[in-house]
């Protein structure tokens, strides 16, 4: 209980405070990533000038957002659902990893099934039929109708 | 004379059977997706971008434009029928539109929305055609400093008009600009911020980021909350508005068209602002303001006309200056770049056929919307019944395939998913993704013009103030920013968005 009261007093708007902090972090990573790039020479911009300029500005704005979060009352962050981001993320990774060797229809079918698990409203028989329909439909649309060169069949 | 010759050139290209078909498919698919809950115009275009990859440039842009109007129009259908605005620009339509539907007058409300949109769309298209050439001529006098200042104005307008905190919108602009620097340096070709990854040395495709931020992030947000589902009461019958309806809405359509056309041209403005402005204006000049909110037909006619007019005139800065005014136009600019078109005033000189065909196809698309949508209303209503549990896997697989297809690269798909998670995180922390996308697309142009300006002036930063056009633009930018931070305006701004 006590910790709750303390954090409430220091961080009055967690959405802004953590949001600003994350942006500062992003800016710092970008700054570090562009350290090896040459800066401006005389009147010419170097390749590193713009990234460092934008990173610096982002750092400053992120800092301001964080300070705002400490000074002004704001909303609490609602609880994150773990299931949604985890399973949607997994389905995207599955697609990326499998499409090259298993081809579009097969990969799409399993990707859709994994994604379907992300919602607790999913009904499984319906989801399997829908996955089959979508994967065939997408293959016909993208590969045959639109002529995109996606791998079609499993690569044995 | 030029005006007629240009339109004729546009017609000759846009009316080819292939382009007519693409326009029709775009309008139909756009309406279908726009009707679906939780997918607005920006998400529709982002998700459907890969469909246009294999098309020639003219066809791709015509189809995308069709998707855009269709999605706009689909949004108003759901506002009227089930009180769920498909997108932000038809939020105000729910006020009187849904009331009309509850009084059994859904048919006339839909018909007036369609007629108003068509009249406004026609006026908007004519305005684009009229202003296109003179504005392009002005833009051709622009040098690097002027372009830089102009883009600054665009970005600042995006900040001013973002709905949340000004500071957070500024932060999103910088994130977008930073992301835009990933990839090969424009002048030296050195890979930047690639963290040693080969694939990143070419930069992250904006399609990948847009699909993640608008497609996947929205999915993540929507599956979190239990589904809000509107129920369509009864059947939509008797589409014909009465003579009284037409008389009442004629003025509202006219005024909405004018307001929408003006606000649409402003960068950062566009459909959302104009529909709010038109509704407020109608209410203020009405002899009996108490009718509004209880099924006044002007309350449907004015905002629907305004958002469609704005949707058209928003193309003016994009087609003449190569500068997108809002997130939808940013996606268009990205699509143009993917088709190998370098956006800017020179496009109208080098490829007049492309520009005029797109302009004319806007009008053709509006005709199709009126002809197709009213008879097909039954289909759109049935689309409303598609549950989200079926919808989101479809969105997901479209995004996966789309991201992969940009370069046939698995890393792009992974990055798309990553940006989906980032986008979800941003939404949860009340950061808006729209200014980010705008900055991402404008970033390379902004940097290039800044660098060129610095070279021209031998490193003297006052060049932006000593060139008159550039100075005027910068003064505008500073004024806008100052105004948005003033407390009294800030309060008004919050009121407008809260309404």
From TrEMBL, chain A:
Query: Does the record carry Metal-binding as a key word?
Result: no
Q: Name one Pfam family in it.
A: TctB
DUF1468 domain: residues covered: 19-151
Regions annotated as coiled coil: none
Mind telling me which residue stretches traverse the membrane in this protein?
Answer: 17-33, 53-71, 92-115, 127-153
User: What InterPro entries does this protein's entry cite?
Assistant: DUF1468
UniProtKB keywords: Membrane, Transmembrane, Transmembrane helix
Protein name per UniProt? Tripartite tricarboxylate transporter TctB family protein
- The question of whether Transmembrane is a record keyword is answered with yes
UniProtKB/TrEMBL annotation, chain B:
Alphabetized InterPro entries for the sequence: DUF112_TM
Which keywords, in A-to-Z order, does the entry hold?
Membrane, Transmembrane, Transmembrane helix
Pfam families named among the record's database cross-references: TctA
Q: Which residues cross the membrane?
A: 20-39, 45-69, 109-132, 166-184, 204-223, 257-281, 314-333, 354-380, 386-406, 469-489
Residue ranges occupied by any DUF112 domain in the UniProt entry: 20-438
Instruction: From the Swiss-Prot or TrEMBL record, give the protein name.
Output: Tripartite tricarboxylate transporter permease
What high-level taxonomic lineage is stated for the organism? Bacteria, Pseudomonadati, Pseudomonadota, Alphaproteobacteria, Hyphomicrobiales
């Amino acid at each position: 209980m006590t910790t709750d009261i303390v954090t409430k007093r220091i961080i009055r708007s967690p959405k802004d405070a953590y949001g600003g902090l994350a942006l500062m972090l992003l800016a710092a990573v970008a700054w570090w990533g562009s350290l090896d790039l040459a800066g401006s020479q005389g009147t010419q911009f170097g390749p590193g000038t713009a990234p460092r300029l934008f990173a610096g500005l982002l750092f400053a704005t992120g800092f301001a957002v964080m300070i705002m979060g400490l000074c002004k009352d704001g909303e609490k962050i609602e609880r994150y659902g773990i299931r949604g981001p985890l399973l949607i993320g997994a389905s995207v990774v599955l697609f990326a990893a499998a499409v090259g060797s298993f081809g579009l229809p097969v990969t799409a079918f399993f990707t859709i099934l994994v994604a379907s698990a992300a919602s607790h409203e999913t009904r499984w028989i319906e989801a399997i039929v829908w996955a089959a329909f979508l994967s065939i439909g997408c293959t016909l649309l993208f590969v045959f109708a639109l002529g995109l060169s996606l791998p079609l069949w499993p690569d044995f | 004379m030029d005006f007629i010759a240009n339109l004729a050139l546009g017609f000759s290209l846009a009316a080819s059977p292939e382009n007519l078909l693409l326009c029709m498919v775009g309008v139909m698919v756009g309406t279908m997706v726009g009707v679906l809950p939780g997918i607005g115009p920006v998400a529709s275009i982002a998700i459907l971008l890969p469909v246009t990859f294999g098309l020639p440039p003219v066809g791709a842009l015509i189809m995308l434009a069709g998707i855009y109007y269709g999605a706009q129009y689909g949004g108003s259908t759901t506002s009227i029928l089930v009180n769920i605005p498909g997108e932000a620009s038809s939020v105000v339509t729910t006020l009187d539109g849904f009331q009309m539907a509850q009084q059994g007058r859904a048919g006339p409300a839909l018909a007036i929305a369609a007629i108003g949109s068509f009249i406004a769309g026609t006026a908007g298209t004519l305005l684009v055609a009229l202003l296109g050439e003179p504005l392009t001529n002005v833009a051709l006098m622009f040098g690097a400093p002027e372009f830089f200042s102009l883009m600054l104005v665009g970005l600042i307008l995006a900040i001013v008009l973002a709905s949340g905190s000004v500071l957070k919108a500024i932060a999103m602009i910088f994130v977008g600009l930073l992301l835009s620097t990933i990839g090969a340096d424009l002048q030296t070709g050195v890979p930047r911020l690639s963290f040693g990854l080969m694939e990143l040395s070419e930069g992250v495709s904006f399609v990948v980021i847009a699909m993640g931020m608008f497609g996947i992030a929205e999915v993540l947000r929507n599956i979190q909350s239990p589904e809000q589902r509107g129920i369509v009461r009864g059947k939509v019958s008797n589409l014909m508005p009465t003579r009284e309806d037409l008389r009442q809405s004629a003025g509202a359509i006219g005024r909405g068209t004018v307001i929408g056309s003006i606000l649409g041209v402003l960068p950062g403005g566009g459909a959302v602002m104009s529909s709010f402005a038109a509704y407020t204006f109608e209410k203020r000049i009405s002899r009996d303001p108490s009718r509004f909110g209880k099924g006044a037909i002007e309350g449907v006619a004015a905002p629907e006309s305004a958002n469609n007019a704005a949707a058209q005139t928003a193309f003016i800065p994009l087609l003449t200056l190569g500068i997108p005014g809002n997130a939808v136009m940013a996606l268009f600019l990205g699509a143009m770049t993917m088709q190998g078109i370098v956006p800017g005033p020179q496009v109208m000189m080098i490829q007049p056929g492309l520009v005029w065909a797109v302009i004319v196809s806007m009008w053709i698309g509006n005709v199709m919307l009126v002809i197709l949508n009213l008879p097909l209303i039954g289909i759109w209503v049935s689309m409303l019944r598609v549950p989200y549990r079926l919808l989101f896997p479809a969105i997901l697989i479209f995004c996966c395939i789309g991201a992969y297809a940009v370069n046939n690269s698995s890393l792009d798909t992974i990055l798309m998913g990553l940006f989906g998670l980032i986008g979800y995180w941003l939404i949860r922390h009340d950061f808006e993704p729209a200014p980010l996308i705008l900055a991402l697309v404008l970033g390379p142009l902004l940097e290039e013009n800044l660098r060129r300006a610095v070279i021209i002036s031998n490193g003297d930063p006052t060049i932006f103030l000593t060139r008159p056009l550039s100075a005027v633009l910068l003064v505008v930018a500073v004024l806008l920013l100052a105004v948005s931070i003033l407390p009294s305006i800030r309060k008004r701004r919050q009121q407008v968005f809260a309404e």
